[in-house]
Amino acid sequence: MMNPAYGIEVFYLRLDSKAPIEYYDNTVEFAEFDVASNYVMVGGNRYLAVHPKVEPYGGLQIGMGIFNVENPETGKSGSATKFAWGLKAGVNIWASERIAIKLQGGLLSAVQSVGGGLYFGTGGAGAGVSGLFDLLPVDPGWCVVFSLGGR
Question: What domain range includes position 56?
Answer without folding.
Answer: 6-21+31-146
